């Protein structure tokens, strides 16, 4: 169980959340909703003890599992830990097979009494592994891993060498495989394909413990939750029912509050008008005016609060200086990681102003190809050529360009020599005006996305390389980004699993990975986008 009473959370001198109270018990499935930067992730971190509340009480009973939207790994027991071993740490058998293998090798390397001792040690480790249900646990871990898109070959890969998306899937598998009483999940569907999302929705629907989830994936919220906590202007309001019911009910409550406030304000206006007439007349009328002032004061104090609808993100890419006819071209690209060949002999050919989507299943090399085109990573074979007057803008899905210890405004200064006033104004369009002097690493996932997009806007590139740009964005911010990209006249090369977003963007061409085949895009490809 999770019990939260009268919690206040502060960010520096600013009160982020106040008077937060709720309970999550077995069988409760609660969705936490709110705009980017409202404090959802900060609340999550406070609930699991990574940060401390300024006031209030948080009580947790039973085993709590927490899945973070961030990709940074906890310290591993050993650097070469594989994905399967990481998942198995959820059941305390993560490193046992590695110890068994080391014991087996010691048998081969020894002789005589030393070998006898090694054989006995090997037997004890095997017995312990079997007694803990290790073989059965391993099968269960592999089943969950497969369900969320981790292939068998990936399970043997060291976690430290995996991409951010792969690490997130491994961590999600580990949390789901834990024996938890309460699950706290922050954006669990990021990096999941359509089949994995469907499996996760069914899993959460059947989960017997208490669920507390933050997600911009509306189908997940509709199918898997039974109540909503809406975080707005530092307050939380509870709603019974799924996300669709919350949208209807919240609008009804807003209309009712506006009506009540309008009635209250009319009474106050009438009293104040009477007070102004009475004040300048007889002493008796002046006393009545004084009484009315007290009444008006009480009415003002009890005015129904109507939360503002909030400012909207305003994304607009300035039209860039045109590139040459072929802004970027690649020939014969190949990339491997150790024995894992990601792709071979891939060509990329672009025309100015084209919109190209890189498509393929998980592990097909979509992000790797984009990183090579951006110059962030080097191909093992082949070359990338930039055309005349080509300027690149790269958006990394894991926000690698956003660094700890560097303030938001300094990130903007690194990509532009425009005056601070201009940079601050631009950050305001992305609703980051109050975060300009904040350490950028402390921003929420959605805010980091907005900062990365603001950097692209101010840099004015004529080729945009975008890797999952809608991850962590709330619906309004996603719509704003889509409008900005539709108005952009430069070249766009995109990786995205968001089929609705891709459909609205309407790409001209698709690069099908891992073969690198280029084809004209049509609606029939949207199914593969969702599976990516």
Task: Provide a concise account of the structure shown.
42% of the residues lie in helices and 21% in strands. The protein is built from 18 helices and 18 strands. A 6-stranded mixed β-sheet has the order 5-6-7-3-8-9, sandwiched between helices.
The CATH class of the domain at 328-531 is Alpha Beta
Q: Average pLDDT value?
A: 86
- Oligomeric category: single chain
- Our count of helices gives 18
> What do we call the CATH homologous superfamily of the domain at 328-531?
P-loop containing nucleotide triphosphate hydrolases
- In which range does the helix fraction lie? 40-55%
Apparent shape: globular
Strand content: 15-25%
Kindly state the number of beta strands: 18
The biggest sheet amounts to: 6 strands, mixed
Q: Kindly identify the CATH topology of the domain at 328-531.
A: Rossmann fold
Q: Distance between the terminal alpha carbons, to the nearest Å? A: 36 Å
Return Rg in Å: 28 Å
In the CATH hierarchy, the architecture of the domain at 328-531 is 3-Layer(aba) Sandwich
Overall SS class: alpha/beta
* Poorly predicted sequence stretches spanning 5 or more consecutive residues: none
Sheet with the most strands: spatial strand order:
5-6-7-3-8-9
């Amino acid at each position: 169980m999770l019990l939260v009473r009268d919690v206040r959370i502060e960010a520096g001198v600013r009160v982020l959340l106040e008077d937060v109270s709720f309970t999550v018990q077995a069988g409760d499935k609660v969705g936490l909703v709110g705009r980017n930067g409202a404090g959802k992730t900060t609340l999550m971190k406070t609930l699991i003890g990574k940060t401390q509340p300024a006031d209030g009480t948080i009580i947790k009973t039973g085993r709590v599992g927490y899945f973070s939207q961030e990709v940074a790994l906890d310290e591993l027991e050993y650097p070469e830990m594989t994905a399967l071993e990481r998942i198995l740490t959820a059941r305390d058998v993560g490193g046992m097979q590695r110890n068994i293998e080391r014991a087996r090798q010691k048998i081969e390397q020894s002789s005589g009494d030393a070998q006898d001792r090694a054989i006995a040690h090997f037997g004890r480790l095997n017995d312990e592994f079997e007694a803990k249900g290790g073989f059965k646990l391993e099968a269960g871990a592999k089943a969950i891993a497969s369900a969320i898109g981790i292939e068998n070959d990936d399970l043997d890969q060291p976690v430290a060498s995996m991409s951010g998306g792969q690490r997130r899937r491994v961590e999600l598998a580990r949390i789901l495989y834990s024996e938890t009483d309460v699950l706290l999940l922050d954006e669990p569907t990021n990096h999941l394909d359509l089949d994995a999302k469907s499996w996760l929705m069914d899993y959460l629907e059947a989960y017997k413990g208490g669920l507390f989830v933050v997600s911009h994936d509306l189908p997940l919220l509709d199918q898997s939750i039974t109540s909503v906590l809406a975080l707005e202007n530092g307050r939380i309001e509870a709603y019974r029912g799924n996300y669709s019911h919350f949208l209807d009910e919240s609008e009804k409550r807003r209309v009712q509050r506006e009506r009540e406030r309008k009635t209250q304000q009319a009474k106050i206006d009438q009293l104040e008008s009477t007070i102004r007439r009475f004040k300048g007349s007889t002493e008796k009328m002046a006393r009545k005016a004084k009484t009315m002032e007290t009444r008006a004061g009480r009415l003002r104090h009890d005015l129904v609060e109507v939360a503002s609808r909030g400012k909207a993100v305003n994304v607009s890419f300035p039209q860039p200086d045109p590139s040459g006819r072929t802004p970027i071209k690649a020939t014969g690209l190949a990339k491997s990681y150790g024995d894992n060949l990601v792709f071979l002999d891939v060509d990329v050919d672009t025309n100015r102003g084209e919109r190209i989507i890189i498509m393929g299943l998980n592990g097909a090399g979509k992000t790797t190809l984009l990183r090579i085109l951006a110059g962030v990573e080097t191909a093992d074979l082949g070359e990338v050529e930039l055309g005349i007057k080509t300027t690149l803008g790269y958006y990394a899905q894991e926000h690698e360009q956003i660094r700890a210890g560097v303030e938001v405004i300094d990130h903007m200064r690194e990509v532009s020599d425009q005056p601070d006033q201009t940079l601050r104004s631009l950050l305001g369009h992305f609703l980051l005006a109050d975060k300009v002097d904040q350490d950028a690493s402390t921003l929420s996932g959605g805010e980091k996305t907005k900062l990365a997009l603001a950097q692209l806007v101010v840099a004015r590139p004529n080729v945009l390389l975008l890797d999952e740009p809608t991850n962590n964005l709330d619906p309004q911010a996603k719509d704003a980004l889509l409008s900005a990209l539709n108005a952009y006249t430069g070249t766009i090369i995109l990786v995205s699993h968001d089929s609705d977003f891709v459909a609205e963007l309407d790409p001209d061409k698709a690069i099908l990975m891992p073969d690198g085949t280029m084809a004209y895009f049509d609606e029939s490809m949207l199914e593969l986008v969702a599976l990516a």
